[in-house]
Amino acid sequence: MSQSMIPAYITSLIRHFEDLRDGTHGGSASRKDKEAHFENAVQLLAPIARHVLNEMNMNLPRDTGQLTESGLRRTPDGGLNASWALCWPEQQAAGIEPIGLQAYFGGGFHHPHLRGTTVHDWPLNVFSEEDAAAQLYSQTGVI
């Protein structure tokens, strides 16, 4: 399979395994540089996260939901976190967790991850607008 035919989620996993092998993230070894990559990834991913959750809002709760986002913040363990969530009255009344996405880089982690309420953890390897947009669709449809 040519490099251009490899689905984005497979390319992301390959980067993840390379990070683990090399102790780097995006070619960086220092925590400071890895955090700079993470901050950039959050900026690149934010419009994609908003798009996905707004699309869900239009189609699931028929535009009755509310999208919230935390922005980049430092966590108690010294890591970094950013989150986006969609909630709506019926979901809240039923005691169900909001639909959410979370980008996080734990204080003791070697590299960051992306978590969703349905997909859970996934390696976060976003270094360009194309990488961020590729998180929306895989070859088989929406991730």
Structure, described:
Helices cover 38% and strands 23% of the residues. The protein has one domain (3-142). β4 (99-105) and β5 form a beta hairpin. The strands form 2 sheets. Strands 1, 2, 3, 4, 5 and 6 form a 6-stranded antiparallel beta sheet that branches. A two-stranded antiparallel sheet has the order 7-8. With 143 residues, the protein is α+β, with helices and mostly antiparallel strands. It is built from 4 helices and 8 strands; from the N terminus they run ααβββαβββαββ.
List keywords for this structure.
143 residues; alpha+beta; 6-stranded antiparallel beta sheet; two-stranded antiparallel ribbon; 4 helices; 23% strand; disordered C terminus
